[in-house]
Design a protein that fits this description.
Blueprint lengths: L2 E2 L13 H10 L4 E4 L8 H11 L2 E13 L5 E9 L6 H28 L5 H8 L5 H10 L6 H6 L15 E2 H10 L3 E4 L13 H7 L6 E5 L5 H14 L2 E4 L19 H19 L2
Parallel strand pairs: 1-2, 2-3, 3-5, 6-7, 7-8
Antiparallel strand pairs: 3-4, 4-6
């Protein structure tokens, strides 16, 4: 069984529709795929319909924008994968709405700043095309389409980097709060690509330890942005803390050079993740 627990559709910053992503997952030989668009569940229904049609198991998930404690003690952006939660949980649903509003406001300001020096950038058109899950990859794609840069990566290395005058920060969910919200909604949480050095500053490993009593379930260990040493460090930490170990592609369609199933999750770890969600749902509903 081949299991990929981290993918994105164009509902957030991928290029495939949810149905196209599921078909591509089946064609890539996957048996299980998780749809984890940023701060939204909007693609779940379309993905589920296609998964039923092609005979693939869909894990309903989301990648949440959070703020943790960096190795230097200062706040750092962190992504938290949430799986199998109740999308109707009122507290968690309200926080997702807030995050999406933050995304839209931030991308509008960034697009307006870019438009001063890149007149071909049209903020209204970008936001009309992207919706509530707007992110920097959408700006990167607009810069590529306009011929201002040669690739999405060039956009991130240049006008969209965090120290660029066009960059705007957003207010993300405190990591501790996010873990607690996911648990309260019956879901399971996994810290995404915690040692992705090419993305900038790193989350303090001690903060991961602090999350375990709050309900953290796992670590994404096998990921394209982890080198061999950091993969080992995370695997050892997961073993120490008795956390689920996942592996994933972080597929974004044409926006990144990542293949579906490039990294996968072991069957026993996937089964453990599902079992932990089942136990929480039973507790929450009183069944």
């Amino acid at each position: 069984m081949r299991i990929d627990l981290h993918t994105h559709s164009r509902v957030s910053d991928g290029t495939d529709s949810p149905a196209e992503l599921v078909r591509a997952a089946a064609e890539a030989g996957l048996d299980v795929v998780a749809l984890t668009d940023h701060d939204t569940t909007a693609g779940w229904d379309d993905a589920a319909d296609e998964a039923d049609r092609v005979g693939l198991t869909l894990v309903r998930g989301m990648e949440m924008s959070c703020e943790g404690r960096g190795e230097d003690g200062a706040p750092v952006a962190v992504h938290l994968l949430a799986y199998l939660f109740d999308p109707e949980d009122p507290v968690f649903a309200a926080e997702r709405r807030r995050l999406r509003a933050e995304r839209v406001a931030r991308i509008r300001v960034m697009a307006e700043r870019l438009a001063v020096d890149y007149p071909m950038i049209e903020p209204d058109a970008i936001l009309a095309a992207t919706g509530e899950s707007a992110g920097r990859p959408h700006l990167a794609r607009a810069l590529v389409d306009a011929g201002a840069v040669a690739s999405v990566q060039e956009a991130f290395d240049g006008p969209l980097k965090t120290d660029s005058p066009y960059y705007v920060a957003k207010i993300d969910t405190p990591l501790d709060t996010a873990v607690e919200m996911i648990r309260a909604a019956g879901g399971v949480s996994v810290v995404a690509h915690a040692r992705a050095r090419t993305r900038g500053r790193l989350l303090d490993l001690a903060h991961i330890r602090d999350l375990v009593p709050l309900g953290l379930d796992g670590l994404e260990v096998e990921h394209a942005d982890h080198d061999e040493n950091d993969t080992r460090v995370l695997r050892e930490l997961a073993e120490e803390l008795d956390l689920v170990v996942t592996g994933s592609s972080d597929y974004h369609g044409d926006n990144k050079t990542l293949r579906l199933g490039e990294h996968t999750t072991a069957v026993d770890q996937y089964e453990r993740l599902v079992a932990q969600s089942d136990a929480r749902v039973t507790t929450t509903t009183g069944g």
